[in-house]
Amino acid sequence: MPAIRRMSASSTPPGNPPRAMGAALRALHLPIGAAWSSPTFRARQTARLAGLHNPMIAAELGDNGRSMQAATGDQAGWLRSLANRPPRARTNTFVVTQYPNIKAAFGNRAADMSDGEAIVLRPSPGGPQVVGHVTMDEWPKLVVRR
User: Fold this and answer.
1) Residue 92 near residue 3 (C-beta atoms within 8 A)
2) Fewer Cβ within 10 Å of end Cβ, the chain: N or C?
3) Residue 13 belongs to a domain
4) Residue 16 belongs to some domain of the structure
5) pTM
6) pLDDT value of position 110
């Protein structure tokens, strides 16, 4: 199931949310099969701090050098296609990108995302289905509930 994390270059939450998210992924034993990242520094840094080793860097997940401006239609289609690919057996795919890309790809299903929030998607014949959202402060709480 792909989880796509929203990034914003303009805000850095207190503490180290990417590390907390990575710790929660490990504590919950969520197997990550593939990791993808925007080529932007902030996205690559988030992937590294979260422990997503060797993410595949895709220009389609970037901001085209336009500093968080809206993604192109081609980028939105590429992200929808990526999110609809079934992950390897018994694993999850994790994608780190910027909000304009997520909004362009998923429209109103991503409209109320907060900075650092993950959208959880399930591949389906009609396109990826949103099955949940996880905010940065919810990751540690998921571990406690376990």
Assistant:
1) yes
2) C
3) no
4) no
5) 0.83
6) 86
Which two structure tokens, joined as six digits, stand for 126? 């009609």
- Computed on alpha carbons and rounded to an integer, the radius of gyration of the chain in Å comes to 14
Interatomic CA distance for residues 74 and 29, integer angstroms: 34
The alpha-helical segments, DSSP class H, found in the chain are 17-27, 41-49, 73-83, 99-106, 138-145
CATH code of the domain covering residue 95: 3.40.50.1240
Q: Which domain holds residue 93?
A: 3-8+23-145
**Separation of alpha carbons 19 and 44, rounded Å:** 13
Is the distance from CB of 21 to CB of 48 less than 8 angstroms? Answer: no
Provide the pairing of β-strand 3-7 with 118-122. antiparallel
Beta-strand pair 118-122/129-134: antiparallel
Examine residue 60 and state whether it is found in any structural domain, yes or no: yes
Tell me the per-residue pLDDT of 30-89, one tens digit each, with 9 for 90 and over. Answer: 999 999 999 999 899 999 999 998 999 999 999 877 665 667 789 999 999 999 999 999
